[in-house]
Specification:
The complex is a heterodimer of chains A (86) and B (327). By secondary structure, chain A is mainly alpha-helical. Chain A has four helices and no strands. Chain A has a domain at 30-86. The radius of gyration of chain B is 20 Å and the shape is globular. Chain B is α/β, with parallel strands linked by helices. Chain B has helices at residues 85-98, 112-115, 118-128, 149-158, 164-172, 207-222, 228-236, 252-275, 291-301, 316-325, and strands at 2-8, 12-19, 25-30, 32-35, 52-56, 59-65, 102-110, 130-134, 137-148, 174-180, 185-191, 194-203, 241-244, 247-250, 283-287, 306-309. In chain B, helix 9 links the parallel strand 15 (283-287) and strand 16 (306-309). Chain B is built from ten helices and 16 strands. Classes of the chains: A mainly alpha (86), B alpha/beta (327). At the A-B interface, helix 1 and helix 4 of A face strand 3, strand 9, helix 4, helix 5 and strand 12 of B.
Amino acid sequence: MASAESGWRVVVRIGSGQPELRAALADLPSRARAERLRQLALVGLYSLRCGASVTASERDLQSPPADAAFTARRERLMRALTVEGE
Amino acid sequence: MTVIGLDVGYSNLKIAVGEAGAAPQVLVRPAGAAPLDRLGERIGTGLPQDAVIVDIDGQPWAAAVEPARLEGWQRSLHADYAATPAYRALVTAALVLADRPVVERLVTGLPVEQARDPRRREALRRTLIGRHRTERGGFEVGEVRIVPQPVGAFVDLLWSDLDSETLARIEEGTVLVLDAGYYSFDWAVVVAGELRCGASGTSLEAMSVLIERAAGLIAEQHGGRPQPLALEAALRRGREHLLVLGKRVLLQPLLEHAAREVGGVALEALRQALRREVTNVDLVLVTGGGGALYKRQAAELFPGAQVLLARDPVGANARGFFRYGQR
């Protein structure tokens, strides 16, 4: 008889449509994948509740610091980069 | 304004989509595309769940799938790739994946040699611009810009977390961008921020040749038939091993061996092309799916130059095209 704590069993297929998730799980032994997936889901849930997912997806993790001089130098380089017949 | 930076490669489809002025969302999918009946069915599902189904000339096509899943289908690997139905299927799939009904500006790249040809640019522009009808609705592309492929990685470098010394090298010096793609190995020269088309060029000794060579080495050393598609899929997934006749074969030494042979030919073509045009190279940016394999050889070829590997070489061009498109 299933106890009250037995929880749900969910079979999840992670195909090539989720390459980032596949990569995160690929090197783990198969038994460790479920636990890792639970951890990642909890982090995602926490981010949603705290509004962090929006910030994280919109923030450019590569962007340099918003320094006016740096931005001006970069803009100059972007303007100079004219491609013929684009 | 919605902007898409689109990099339709032979191995991966890369899409950077977002609003001008904000950071893009970057999507990377395998670049397999073929009529739907060529797609192997996943056991137990009955449906090609992860393929994007698009209509090409009245026929259903499966796009953005692993090339190895396509049965009896030879993928296009030639200079006219951008004119093939497979390319059109991937463009439509990219618009479906980006999921924006109106795209004000789309920026994409062509190999350097092809980007110089106005007829090729115009043919590609006609493929991309206008209304694209799909089962998920219509997608409108307003304006199209076509640039030499390595321009994407260069722009992406400008938007990365640069230190002051590197930025000064870009402003004052000569930057060489090496884009080790699947079909072509492209290079572009940017002097004091200006693109020098005359010193930029293309070699076809690229990743497809390197993978063929590495697959041949695996067959020679471990038996069986060469499996370039399986090797390509393993690389795309970041695997360190390939299963060959029941044995796990470590890939890195074989890839490095193949890179020494194939990369040597490509870099020699590059050296010859640069001999008359450029005296010194101050910074080398290595990008593309095969970028990591070429970095050491590039450093040997240009002693004294700072050699950088793009942080995410696969998505660098698409991100750079997006940034280029928001100007």
